[in-house]
Amino acid sequence: MDTDRPIPYMQRTREWYAALGYGNPYRYAHFEDVPFQPLARPLRDCVLTLVTTAAPYQPGNGAQGPGAPYNAAAKFFTPYSLDTARDHDLRISHVAIDRQHASMEDSNCWFPLPLMRRWAQQGRFQLAARCHGAPTNRSQRHTVEVDVPVILQRCLEDGVDAAVLVPNCPVCHQTLSLTARALEAAGIATVIMGCALDIVEHVGVPRLLFSDFPLGNAAGKPHDGTSQEATLALALDLLQTATGPRTTVQSPQRWSVSADWKPDYCNPERASPAELARLRADFDAGKETARARRDLGAERR
User: Fold this and answer.
1) Record's superkingdom (predicted)?
2) Interval 66-78: pLDDT, tens
3) What residues pair up with 82 in beta bridges, in sequence order?
4) Is residue 294 part of a domain?
5) What is the pTM assigned to this prediction?
6) Residue 301 resides in a domain
7) What letter does residue 145 receive in the DSSP assignment?
8) Cystine design at 68: which of 63, 99, 198, 264 (Cβ 3.0–4.6 Å)?
9) Contacts of 69 by beta carbon, 8 Å cutoff, 6+ apart
């Protein structure tokens, strides 16, 4: 593998799940036409919101956060909204984030609300009253027809001019790409801060700031304020300067001197048959847990 190139996440996950024994490879959404909404006025006069796929911490639902394995019990299945004036405990325990190279210790890597609040207080832009969480759903139809309209309506209620979207796992990148498309079609400018270049560009979005970092670090390096500020600054600059859809800018930051972390991700050649069998069993158990929680949530509604 040419380690100077971004990880081909669609190909890598397809091969990984085939090695686990699953057939019928997943097909990501793809569109030829991409909506595009320029900023209506200078950034300082715009109302911005943040959209994430991170999950609010759920005490009692198992390990979440640093060092946690995939935890289906921590999933959420309906969009949520949070007060941007407060800090929130959002964590990532998604099925396919890079646990080997992402520490999951610094939520600023995937939820840059504190930085956005600070910059809004400095007058760089206005921060919307609410930020939003989008569920990660493999069903593109459910995302487009059920979840995205909820987020769009709340953004319209808050008078949002633009949105910064930060995905985590591979399917998260599809989810927020679909969200960005809907927001743009409704007149809200968007920029995705992402690490899965191929997925976002395959779906087709207006603006992408690509950071060649392990999944789970789209908003900058952990415990590195300089990296996080530079990443958000690039995203906001792209929000203002893009002149048409499918505009991708790559961050100049490198994750490390070596790119040896890239061949490790979901690589069946680096896993023994016994490990693959264990991971298949864990994944099947996780699917059952998620299905049970989803069904229980549907009954309560």
Assistant:
1) Bacteria
2) 777 777 777 889 9
3) 131
4) no
5) 0.91
6) no
7) I
8) 63
9) 63, 93, 99, 282
